Amino acid sequence: MAWYRNRKSALLLPLVGLAAACASTVQRPRADDGIPVVAAPQISENTLRDAIRTLSSDAFEGRGPATPAEDKTVAYIIDRFKAAGLKPGNKGSWTQDVPTVTITAGNVAPLTVSGGGKTMSFKYGSEFVAGSYRVTPQTRINASDLVFVGYGINAPELGWNDYAGVDMKGKTAVILVNDPDYEMAGEDGPFRGRRMTYYGRWTYKFEEAARQGATGALIVHDTFPAAYGWNVVNSSWTGAQKYTQTANDAMDQTVANGWIQKPVAEAIFKAAGQDLAALSAAAKQKGFRAVPLGLKASMSFDNTIERGRSRNVIGIQPGSKRPDEYVLYTAHWDHLGRCAPDKTGDDICNGAVDNASGVAALIALAEANKRAGPAERSQVFAAVTLEESGLLGSEFYAANPVYPLNRTVGGVNMDGVGPGSPARDVTITGGDKSDLTDTLRIVEKQMGLVESPESHPERGGYYRSDHFSFAKRGVPMFDVGTGSDWIRGGKTAGEAAGEDYTRNRYHQPADEYQESWDMSGALQQVELYYRLGRMLAMSKAWPNWRAGDEFRAIRDKDCAASGGC
Fold it and tell me: What is the Cα Rg of the chain in Å?
């Protein structure tokens, strides 16, 4: 439910011609054009309860990937998918291997910055953190020129390029967090103002620095635009880091990337004869040009490397008329496994809501679609792994799709289907980003729901769950859920349930199934997901991102390359 999903997210692309060519082939979903009326589904409460109860039991030990519990979890999901009438979804197999690599930095030297006859040294952990995506035993950056690149954004659709006119080869980018217009109260700015876009996420900034040929990238941490304190950065970036393996061992990424404290950045800029505040203000303006700082940075550390494997579970209900067009449902099966014990000594983080409930919804949806009969398009049900490690299972599928992404119409991600009362409202994480919103508004009328605004849009919740792995590659994905205005108890009850979950259960052993749960709200949410997915699967429409959205260009490019989606 939205009370759960919003709080979880708080804790955690000259293409104009192609766009015009492809836009003419893409049908926007409208109530009077290709979007069918979908009957209310038969969602089984017993299925939801049984699957949550089983997957979150102590016998599954918190569903840690690459533990004995993974075999048990995968086998259970396959059995339930078979019973629901699905076919093996990966060329006759139920699973897709997800190869992983875990990199742990050690012997981390201080970050040194030199120039003008002076050298400054900054401590690892308290003043800077760094790591490498590259699978290599040693990471060394020696005397790399520092260049301030503002917000580190290259957005052709907005005519914005912070890297214009600068050759970043061999250099280290110093980058501001969030978007240039993050301080706005509304969403009228070029980067949607207060609502964070993907360009504001730290993951994008490191990726773009690599695309620009940079050797290193350092983001300046500032609590308000980052939406979390340095303690979160420090704890997240020190220790083992898990990634999906790539064919080139990520050698196309920067040598090293990391974060620096704002006072560290201020000291560096002062040594360069610059003022961080003044340059930050300049970087908010279109036409900003990167500023070489005349200083050189060095850093080094060793890497302990461990390779592993986990699995996505994939089933398919083939389409009756257009089987080579796909609608995707995703939910992550993994959780934290064994964790810090609570005061009773319980050290199993069972993950009942997060996310046994989402997998239970996948199973219940497969059953409901079996009862309704095949849709016109194929429907793919993917229980993905390693969400808790950084969306790695969905990222691997999206980078190595079993079904072509340019034949994937859209999809629904389910990350938490919590207990409680049915709601009067629905919340869209990320706001009105795509034509999928038109489909949602048809369903809202059918179900008597109204839209409520997303809480904390500045935190970029849309970019923190599995649907994002597909969205950033152009596939429109729903991230929606029923809201906190409960029919029984109103907003007071709904918000209190969310606060209680965040404080007392989220990522703790207490996230356990209770027989006393009221499942009526969960049934409502799964009905919402069924209607959204089934309507896509029964229609001929090909939804696209809204004009100007950061993912529109890649969808248009894919459509044009494939002769139209």
Answer: 24
- Is the same domain home to 297 and 443? no
Residue 243 is predicted with a pLDDT of 94
Residues facing residue 315 across a β-bridge: 88, 381
CATH classification of the domain holding 149:
3.50.30.30
Q: What is the pLDDT of residues 400-438, one digit of tens each?
A: 999 999 999 999 999 999 899 999 999 999 999 999 999
Residues in the chain: 565
Provide the number of structural domains found in the chain: 2
CB of 197 closer than 8 Å to CB of 151: no
Beta bridge partners of 384: 332
pLDDT of residue 9: 46
The Cα 319–Cα 337 span in angstroms is 37
Strands (E) in 369-414, as ranges, are 377-384, 408-413
Which pTM was predicted? 0.90
Question: What is the per-residue DSSP string for 63-79?
Answer: --TTSHHHHHHHHHHHH
Torsional class of 179: left (φ above 0), alpha (ψ -120 to 50), beta (otherwise)? beta
Quick one: which of 10, 40, 51 has its CA closest to 363?
51
- Give which of 338, 361, 481 is closest to 6, Cα–Cα: 481
333 vs 73, 75, 101, 342, 458, CA distance in Å?
8, 12, 19, 23, 28
Host domain of residue 532: 2-100+309-561
CA distance 411 to 28: 15
**Is 159 exposed, middle or buried (CB count within 10 Å of its CB: 0-12, 13-18, 19+)?**
exposed
Tokens found for residue 258: 């990391």
What SS3 class is residue 416?
coil
The low-confidence residues of the chain, meaning pLDDT below 70, are 1-34, 564
Residues 109 and 233 in one domain: yes
Predicted local distance difference test score (pLDDT) of residue 18? 29
Query: Do residues 89 and 186 both lie within one domain?
Result: no
DSSP per residue, 342-360: -TT---EE--IIIIIHHHH
CA distance 186 to 227: 17
Q: Are residues 319 and 461 in the same domain?
A: yes
Give me the phi and psi of 266, to 5 degrees please. -60, -40
Cβ–Cβ < 8 Å for 313, 379: no
